[in-house]
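Request: When convenient, would you put together a sequence paired with its structure tokens?
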Amino acid sequence: MIALLLEVAVRSSALVAGAALVDARLRRRGSAAARHLLWTMTMGALLALPLATATLPRWEISIPVPRTAVPIASETVSAVALPSSALRDTESTRTSGIGDRPSDSAAASGSATALVLYAAGVLILFLRIALEPLALRRLTRSAHDVTDPEWVGLLEEAARQLRLDRPVRLLQSAADVMPMTFGTRRPTVIVPASAGTWTADRLRAVLLHELAHVARRDCFTQTIGSIACACYWPHPGVWWAARRLRVERELACDDRVIAAGTEPRAYAGHLLEIAHSFTAMPAPATALGMARARQLENRLLAIMDAARNRATLHARGRAVAIALAVAALVPVAALRAAVGITATPAMPRAAGAAPQTKSSGPADVTGSWEAQVSQDGAGVYLNFRSGTSSHGRTIPLAELRSTTGVDISTARGPVTFTSKRDAGTFTFDGTCRAGACGGTWTFEANPAFAASLAKRGIGAPTPRQQFKLAVSDIGTAYLDELAKLGYGTPDLEGLVRAADHGVTLDYLRGMADLGYKLGTLDALVQLRDHGVDPQFVRGMTAAGYGRLSADDLRRARDHGADPDFASGLASFGYKNLPLDTLIGARDHGVDPEFIRGLQALGYTSAPLEKLVEMRDHGVDPEFVRGLAALGYKGLPLDTLRRMRDHGVDPDFVRRMQQRGGTLTPEELIERRDRGGNDAG
């Protein structure tokens, strides 16, 4: 995990540095909108980087590095013959090639501490993001909808000038807060209590600026930036990129206001006075305040610059920018430095030191390894790394004892053990201390195995290809099983790909026992990549979905319609659903928690299709509970849907009740459609 974080840190630095170079170029002739899109794409790429690094095919650049023998401290050597099952890994995951080899328990403890500190920082920042809606709710609790015809007319005029077709709620606060915009799905503009004293020109300028945020979907990009900062909080470059995102966002909105016909000098005056009037009024981080003092000087200079490029980006420009961002992300995420080891004369060994493992020359593949005894003392997790790949699994501790008589949990000092596979031999050198072991390993390819593959018509593998086959224990028995199950003779690349993607002999046999003999290894690789394994198939069968085709298994897995989900729906009475119906429910968010919430409110017999319809329209348990608390209990689902569609939510109902009288749902809908201005 530490290695992956370090690798992502290096790659994220490359992304930020590349964006900074492009930004410097755009500052000469480009518009603020173009620069803001650049930093938005950078933030999106940073969020996609870990997944891309872990899943994209590797693009390796070989770096030759000479290997020298390293002397080991003077201790007694234990020769261990590792059983063949010890290195059969359950998965291969991308990790960093940076040297994070754990040589003792102190190093492992340091890595764990760093990981805990990083996770704590991420948790705190995500908690802050999660609590922002509460701060906004407190801010708007005492605010009221603006119904003044003049203000509403200015809002509609500003929306037309910006070609904004989304409904925007306009609130006036009971306090003097900075004019601001918030909300991605339901955008809201809030103006201070003192806005009633503003001139029409100032109100128009403020509304244009805030609606420009809505038109540009800046609240969404602000959220992306906040999430990126939370994920990369130790990285100063990401915080700097987030600041550039905020700066260019405000400049781009100012450009939209000027382009809409506002006189620059007058707009600069409005901005300056607003910034000074509300400087002491803090706003939630997810709300976009109009004029923060720290950005004011640069904004005023930009407003008064008549030669400034104030162009906005059209759909084609945004599409090109997204394509360029993807083109930049893919090589950064896929590039790997594959270290090629060459032999050099060994260093002299200290007197009494453990004997060195003999090098087999350029044909060897090498890396680092680590082992950790489990807390219950019954198993050992063995993990070994090569370049950017990590392979590991837990094996029974008794399996090592019965083979060697050595208790790895009490061993101290140097150890050496080997494991032979059809494809070659692993030799491990290292040291153990307090149940934690680590060191270096080499792999010597078996020429006879390479010859046997060539004889079968598969091809002659390279030493690194044989290493990959050995890791997954793909040997003669595997090839015989393929032939027995009717898969025919695979090509070399297909065989290595199966090893890389975890299509082991156990997986091959397990899927065949369940009736999935797919004819080609690539078909099995696709299933494995989508997370379809024998356990998943058995679970779906137990949930009533037996004998699904391979395509249906992939679809179910991709959409999250797994055995737990199917069993959860069945527990509420939704049994024997067609697979498409099950997947549709999952896609629309009708999960057991949603059903449980509605049934607790009395809706126990609704067809699943009706629940999907309610979910799509936003009728969830929270909405129903809110109305029930105000006296609207047991309403038909269709009535709830109509109320939700027309914006009759608990907040609106509460305001109507505060004005006196009890209204029917239909009356509430009518009042909401008329703007809610004439409560009786």
Q: What stands out?
A: Residues 60-101+356-473 form one domain. The chain has 27 helices and 15 strands. The longest helix spans residues 105-141.
